[in-house]
Amino acid sequence: MTYSEFKRLYQITTVKLRYGLDEFLPDDPRVKAPKMARKSLFWIKNQHADKPLGVRLRLALQELGPVWIKFGQMMSTRRDLFPPHIADQLAMLQDQVAPFDGKLAKQQMEQSLGGPLETWFDDFDETPLASASIAQVHTATLKSDGRKVVLKVIRPDILPVIQADIKLMYRMARILSRALPEARRLRPVEVVREYEKTLLDELNLMREAANGIQLRRNFEDSEMLYVPEVYTDLSSERLLVMERIYGIQVSDVDALVANGTDLKLLSENAVNIFFTQVFRDSFFHADMHPGNIFVARENPENPQWIALDCGIVGTLNREDKRYLAENLLAFFNRDYRKVAELHVDSGWVPKDTNIDDFEFAIRTVCEPIFEKPLAEISFGHVLLNLFNTARRFNMEVQPQLVLLQKTLLYVEGLGRQLYPQLDLWDTAKPFLEDWMSRQVGPQAVIDGVKSRAPFWAEKLPELPELLYDSLRQGNALNQRIDTLYDNFMDSRRDQSLARFYFGIGATLVVCSAILFSNHIETYPAVSAVTGVTFWLLGWRACRK
């Protein structure tokens, strides 16, 4: 471990101790040794004992920087896993991170635009509208047409902080992989690499702009989801200019209720939007924490979601989508044999896994869960129990599914926060069944023909020429095969003749040696010369 990495690790440890986060350690005999080691090496006392534990956790994560803030944002959506006094504080990390100076933000914006803000904007507000871990947002008015916009700017000097934490995470992941054979199943290095890519992508706002444009096009004229317009001519890698929206933040349940919002429909739409993005578009918003999600005030009886901050998106290939859908459907139907077989077929567990044992292990974990009403089952708990079971069968973490798993937990957390009786299973199952029927049923054949029809229509006039070329090439190929066969047979004859000559030559040489040992004159020399002659003939036959 380098000095800089050790220094950062020490800094992380001291921050956590300064805020008294060691209180999260359970009162368990197994953690006595770590507690004693902590008291021996770190004589740092809790300097914020007057603050509640949730506040201390939020402040510590905020001080540690964007990597840890992102972690806190993810935890904030799991209100079924954390008590309100923790989840409420972590929710403040979504858009209430300490801002940096508005004058510095304006200076960075002008550097990106190449001139004074007043050239393009009126009414620029130096007080940020929102401040998050990677960037903060200011409001303004377009000088050209008076439309209200927001300007998002990257925090200054944030890259070295992210790189330092990621480097340390790589170091710890490699140590875990070497020290604990069981940790290799989790593929910690690959997971860190995926997380690094996600964070670094967020630093390029033109990537976020492209993602937003794609997502907006996918849901154009949709009643379920709205994505604000991006002004690409004013945007750059470190500045994003987009339409300002006036919705209700999804975490403000009281305001949604006061607006008459149908919370049940809103939460069900969240599930439908997620599965539509994953299975229809293969392109999903992967950072759906409450700070990025709003609800339109219009039409509360048919509420529309508004998605912001498209810096993190996920994609799945066709094979992953197929296996995922089949796994979920088999799970909904309690077909544990199918779940076990799919895990093996997809390569998520080794091919030599005993299917019967794996099925029984899954059944043992899942059947008690399904005894409860579906609306009370947490998908997060099911995933956790399923992964713990699969760990015994050497299941490897799939890095391409990490974002999907995280986003699905976000969606469930949001849905349960809005409508605690949300039945995620009942909402998702019809969607998945319809999607699977279109993938493997008659409709799949029709869709396949439709998608390939333009290509076939383009190639149809060329069909006679393609057929003629194919026949000509086939004829030429047959001629080449005949020639190769003739050459092969000639070579075999030459090799047989060469072996015959070598055999005669060897016999004559041996006879020459026998005659010479018996003191017979003349004949040994003649036999030897004849034998060598046959060897030369055999060598010549081999060279043909």
Automatic annotation (TrEMBL):
<comment type="function">
    <text>Is probably a protein kinase regulator of UbiI activity which is involved in aerobic coenzyme Q (ubiquinone) biosynthesis.</text>
</comment>
<keyword id="KW-0830">Ubiquinone</keyword>
<keyword id="KW-0472">Membrane</keyword>
<keyword id="KW-1003">Cell membrane</keyword>
<keyword id="KW-0418">Kinase</keyword>
<dbReference type="InterPro" id="IPR045308">
    <property type="entry name" value="UbiB_bact"/>
</dbReference>
<keyword id="KW-0547">Nucleotide-binding</keyword>
<keyword id="KW-0831">Ubiquinone biosynthesis</keyword>
<dbReference type="GO" id="GO:0010795">
    <property type="term" value="P:regulation of ubiquinone biosynthetic process"/>
</dbReference>
<comment type="similarity">
    <text>Belongs to the protein kinase superfamily. ADCK protein kinase family.</text>
</comment>
<feature type="binding site">
    <location>
        <position position="152"/>
    </location>
    <ligand>
        <name>ATP</name>
    </ligand>
</feature>
<keyword id="KW-0808">Transferase</keyword>
<dbReference type="Pfam" id="PF03109">
    <property type="entry name" value="ABC1"/>
</dbReference>
<dbReference type="GO" id="GO:0006744">
    <property type="term" value="P:ubiquinone biosynthetic process"/>
</dbReference>
<dbReference type="InterPro" id="IPR050154">
    <property type="entry name" value="UbiB_kinase"/>
</dbReference>
<feature type="transmembrane region" description="Helical">
    <location>
        <begin position="522"/>
        <end position="542"/>
    </location>
</feature>
<comment type="pathway">
    <text>Cofactor biosynthesis; ubiquinone biosynthesis [regulation].</text>
</comment>
<feature type="domain" description="ABC1 atypical kinase-like">
    <location>
        <begin position="93"/>
        <end position="343"/>
    </location>
</feature>
<dbReference type="InterPro" id="IPR010232">
    <property type="entry name" value="UbiB"/>
</dbReference>
<feature type="binding site">
    <location>
        <begin position="129"/>
        <end position="137"/>
    </location>
    <ligand>
        <name>ATP</name>
    </ligand>
</feature>
<comment type="similarity">
    <text>Belongs to the ABC1 family. UbiB subfamily.</text>
</comment>
<dbReference type="GO" id="GO:0005886">
    <property type="term" value="C:plasma membrane"/>
</dbReference>
<feature type="active site" description="Proton acceptor">
    <location>
        <position position="287"/>
    </location>
</feature>
<keyword id="KW-0812">Transmembrane</keyword>
<protein>
    <recommendedName>
        <fullName>Probable protein kinase UbiB</fullName>
        <ecNumber>2.7.-.-</ecNumber>
    </recommendedName>
</protein>
<feature type="transmembrane region" description="Helical">
    <location>
        <begin position="497"/>
        <end position="516"/>
    </location>
</feature>
<dbReference type="InterPro" id="IPR011009">
    <property type="entry name" value="Kinase-like_dom_sf"/>
</dbReference>
<keyword id="KW-1133">Transmembrane helix</keyword>
<dbReference type="InterPro" id="IPR004147">
    <property type="entry name" value="ABC1_dom"/>
</dbReference>
<dbReference type="GO" id="GO:0004672">
    <property type="term" value="F:protein kinase activity"/>
</dbReference>
<dbReference type="GO" id="GO:0005524">
    <property type="term" value="F:ATP binding"/>
</dbReference>
<keyword id="KW-0067">ATP-binding</keyword>
<keyword id="KW-0997">Cell inner membrane</keyword>
